């Protein structure tokens, strides 16, 4: 998935129905060394990250991962212009 993908305009968080932000591949990985997908979508309002597996966003509520406050701050710095 790329930042210009029209699909990004219609994807929404399954919990609050708000827009999601595409994280760059290096930002999609959390601090721990567990294997994760290359990309992810992020909901900064709820501090939840949703993986993209084989190009398919995993947008079930159970697929989302809560991020820590420190991780949230790091992600905000990466996605802010």
Question: Could you name the key traits of this structure?
Answer:
81 residues, single chain, alpha+beta, 5-stranded antiparallel sheet, 1 helix, globular
Distinct helical segment count: 1
Question: Overall 3D geometry?
Answer: globular
- How far apart the termini lie comes to 20 Å
Overall mean pLDDT stands at 86
- Relative helix content: 10-25%
What about the largest sheet? 5 strands, antiparallel
Order of secondary-structure elements: EEEEEH
Based on secondary structure, the structural category is alpha+beta
The fraction of residues in strands falls at 15-25%
Q: Unreliable stretches, pLDDT < 50, 5 or more residues?
A: none
Please tell me how large the radius of gyration is.
12 Å
- Number of DSSP strands? 5
Summarize the SSE layout with pairings.
Elements: E1 21-23, E2 39-43, E3 48-53, E4 56-57, E5 65-66, H1 69-79
Antiparallel strand pairs: 1-2, 2-3, 3-4, 3-5
Describe the protein.
With 81 residues, this protein is an alpha+beta fold. Helices cover 14% and strands 22% of the residues. Strands 1, 2, 3, 4 and 5 form a 5-stranded antiparallel beta sheet that branches.
Could you provide a short overview of the structure?
14% of the residues lie in helices and 22% in strands.
